[in-house]
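Q: Could you fold this chain for me?
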Amino acid sequence: MKTSDVRWNAAPNGLKLAEGDVHVFCAPLDVPPERFEELLQPLSYDEWQRAGRFHRGRDRERFLAGRGALREILGMFLNVNPASFVFSYGEFGKPQIAAPVAAHSLQFDLAHSDSMVVYAIAQHELGVDLERIRAMDETEQIASRFFTPRENSSLLALPEQQRLEAFFNCWTRKEAYLKAIGSGLNDGLDQIEVSLAPGQAAELRGVANASGQWSLHPLVPASEFVGALAIQQQNSRVNCWSWNGRSPPARE
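A: Sure. Below is the predicted structure, expressed as structure tokens.
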């Protein structure tokens, strides 16, 4: 079964992170007032400062909601107070857990687009990306600059009604891989080749100067959204969940 076929059921209580597991969560960023207040409770002064850099109120609120949900999910896995986490950031902004020390074996990444956020949690390196499929005038110009010649040929060979989804498939798969290895977009989107056709398996077909074994998984958390997960471990078990902070009891 492809990841895109998996239903994103509500995350049960008591999820554990076993070796080889990857848990992916999707969550809404536009939430009712009472839920928003709940998400604000564990946030740090640094996160409030970061939120203040957004000019639009909706963007600030979505950032705060996303960080609150991240703290809830990490707190669930580590059984610690969500407010106890301290984050540090890599050269290109990827967050890491600086404290508590017990959390250092846990790896995570997040991505948001419009009104949705996705989180990926594992014990090995990973990257995740998400985009809302939307009409753009400059897709062909972007593709000609950042896609490989074979990707461009594949894109243009598709029926016109499939090209927009294919474009975002390609973009998110490339970016998920770059985030996984800790690189920025300027480090070679055109040096990474992936599959892109809708319905086609997600594949990492070629990477210049690649190190280690990587695999790609498509993510479709909701209609009009596509995403990708890049993971270092080939035989990982990918589990997809929805998150609203009120998980039902785990099934026997």
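A (continued): The two ends are 23 Å apart (CA to CA).
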